[in-house]
Amino acid sequence: MHIRGDHAELVVGGRLDVVSAADARTVLHSAVDDGVGDLVLDLSELDSWDATGLGVIMGAHRRAGRCGRTLVLRGVPPQMQRLLVATRLHRILAIEGGIGVESLPRV
């Protein structure tokens, strides 16, 4: 997993899973705490995430809310969009451009 960027926009790549969760959490929390306004999380380079990785994203979302910020997901890969829809988190998280639920392939 790699994360690059600053307190306004971060690009997450590789795997966001139980192995990388602690490092990702630290970077995301620092970015939330050190900035103002929206924090854009670009997931276009993300290969996969597991439940732990999704928990990291949700934790950053809650922390951003407590700081008066909004966590905005950008470039969410289709397989991860399906997971967000299945868990109904697409209704809670801010997703740039939204998710076209009707255009996602059925699983």
Protein described:
With 107 residues, the protein is an alpha/beta fold. The chain has a single domain, classed as STAS domain (Transcription Regulator spoIIAA, 2-Layer Sandwich). The protein contains three helices and five strands, in the order ββαβαβαβ. The chain has a five-stranded mixed β-sheet, covered by helices on one side. The longest helix is centred in the middle third of the chain and has 16 residues, at 51-66. It is globular and about 30 Å long.
Keywords:
Transcription Regulator spoIIAA, 107 residues, five-stranded mixed sheet, 36% helix, 5 strands, anti-sigma factor antagonist activity, STAS_dom, alpha/beta
Architecture blueprint of SSEs:
Layout: E1 2-5, E2 9-16, H1 21-34, E3 39-49, H2 51-66, E4 71-74, H3 78-86, E5 94-95
Parallel strand pairs: 2-3, 3-4, 4-5
Antiparallel strand pairs: 1-2
Helix pairs in contact: 1-2
GO molecular function, one term: anti-sigma factor antagonist activity
InterPro entries: Anti-sigma_ant, MlaB-like_STAS, STAS_dom, STAS_dom_sf
Organism: Streptomyces montanus
